[in-house]
Structures are given as structure tokens and as C-alpha cells.
Amino acid sequence: MDSIKIFAPATIANVSCGFDILGLCLDTVGDEMVIKKTKEKGVTISKIIGQTLPLEAKKNVAGVAALALLEKIDSDFGFDIEIYKNIKPGSGIGSSAASAAGAVFGINALLGEPFTTKELVSFAMEGEKLASGSAHADNVAPALLGGFTLVRSYEPSLEVIKINSPKELYATVIHPQIEVKTADSRSVLKQQVTLKLAVKQMGNLGGLISGLFTEDYNLISNSLHDEIVEPYRSILIPGFEEVKQECIKAGALGSGISGSGPSIFALSKGEATAKKVAESMSNVYKNIGIDFDVHISKINQKGIKILS
Question: Is pLDDT at 73 greater than 90 in this prediction?
Fold first, then answer.
């Protein structure tokens, strides 16, 4: 196999109570990438369609992730990457993660899969480090593994666990057309939290994981609360509190900030409810006068998909 075309999905990170450790994979929105073997060693990026991003490999998240992988294996050939961006950078649904994860997935496939999918996560994290200054895995892990993923540890070693996802669980995501820089969204966070808040957050995270495994939708709903991050980041997103209120009225299990924002996600039982939630979210931003994109998706259990 000399080339591969893939679908690199969007993702939701944090999922309310799992800051930097929990994420889920979407099915209906993502980038497409074409990766080809080249005679000359190294990595080139020959084409980016849809967004204006650097073509130089060392300045592009896909290139950085690919180079990190190639440092660990002796290849007789190089790789060229084409990226067709459908996920807007800065949207909060894993634009950089899709590119980084897609690059290492495609190259690994063309090499005959010398690395496991879980081993690819650490390479993709190097792309995230370029994008945000932090080598986090809560977007790249679900993009590669599919479903929900939990990063149990970063140090002393990376450990990622795939979490069960109920079949009727749907995600609705609205992306208001405003910019929230990751650096700004991190700068508003407190570096210390009280023991009381930490205990509540641990209870919510444990409850959410348990609810996912047991397919207990009431437990999932009761656990979708962020005590630590959302109270500070939400001030950067106009209409956030109203969106949350309307989601619940429409029947959502719960909602929160997707990644660092400005996108807002909601989880629902069943596609019909997810569509009602999308309508309610949309109405808020129509009334405010802010343009938006909205996506409805079941949970993508496979992650990155080979198209051809």
C-alpha cells in the first residue's frame, strides 16, 4: 500500500468533569487526509484545503506528530500529507487533534502497523503540544481509539483506557462563530482548588464513568457537572448559561464546554432528543445575533476510519 485516505474525526474533550483526561469521538464531522509514500525520507505537507495553515512540517501539528513517529522507526521512505480541513481551528472540537492523530494513523498503516493504536497517542500528543503548549491526550486519544477515553495517567507513563459508550447516547455540539484562544481559556483557570470542590469533581467523574459502563442515563445526567473549570471559562462564551438552560428544557442529559470552547456540547438519549437540543441551542444564538455551526452525532466507536 503506497497511499491511504482517511476520515479524522472531531472530538469533545473534558466532557464536563474530566478536565484534560476525558474525551469522546464524534461521527458526523471531521477532516479527510491523504497520506502517500515518497522516495525522499522525511515528511512533507503538499496541500491544505479549507483553512490557511502552515505547510512546513515542523510548524504544522500533523507534520510534528508524523516526525515524532518517524524518530522511533527506521523507514526507507518518506511521506506526503494532504489535509482537507472541515474542522475549524479554535472551534473546541479537536481540529489540531484530528490532524495530528490522522497523520500518525495513516503513516503507521503504510508502515505495516509497527505501533499499536494506543502507542500512536503519544506521537499525536506532540502535535497538540505545538498547538496549545500542552501535550494533552484528551482529544487525540478518542480520535484514535473511538468512543470515550480516559487518560488515567500522563506520568510516569501514559495510560489510556477506552470507556464503554451506551448505544443510544448522542452528542449535539454548537460552535458560535467567536474566537476563544486556548491560552486565554487556560489563563482564567485557578491553579489551586479547595478540597471540597475536588471531592465533588471526583464524585462526578466516577459517577460518569460508572454511568457509561452501566448505561445508566440518570447517573450520566447527574454526573455531567464541572465544579472546577466551567465556572471560569464560561464567562468567555456569550449565551453560555442560556444555552445550558435550554438544553435541559429540550431533554438533554447535560451540557458543558467542549474542550477550551467556544463550542458547547450536550449529551442526550436518542437522536430525536439530540435534534430538539440542537434547535434549542440554535435559537439562543439566533436571538443573540451570533452565527454558528451545529452538529448532531452518535458516538463514533471506531475513531479514525480508512476511506480508501
Answer: yes
